[in-house]
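Morning F.,

Quick status update on the modeling queue. The single chain you submitted on Monday has been processed. Sequence for confirmation:
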Amino acid sequence: MADVLDRPRVVRNQQDVELGELMPLALEQVADPAAGRDACAQDAYAPERDAWTVLAGVDGLGPVAFAALLSQFGSGRAILAAAAEPDGVARLEDTPALSLHPDRPGRRPVPGSVAIAIAEAVQGGHRILARLRELDVRVVTVEEATYPPRLTEIEMPPHVLFFRGSLAAMA
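Structure tokens below.
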């Protein structure tokens, strides 16, 4: 196992922390860093939503690969944490395909270029989240109760919606 000192680290608010511990930041934390973890307490799903937001910005990461990664790692935060590890790119590339036919092996859904892009997104995720907050762009994921119900009825609904204003207008 890699030594903790070998893990990618960031300095935020004069504290040295491991990526994955505070990464990605909740949008509320970006707006008010002093709020810290209290902002997340108001919205327990915020760190996961932020992870999905960062992943949604990865060029080449489509819904099939994203679903396979979620199945393999369990959450968006776990995907980003794995990507930040020294062997993270290889672990992401090794993600097995989801198959409707278990007797037919599928090709690997996460090519090397996408795995590298995910690892790079870990490093710049806080900038993405800060920019969205600056623009007053909000995010909802397909896992949330506030996701527009009519969109869930389509075959492959977008896993992340970016919006300004009221999400109720999309209902």
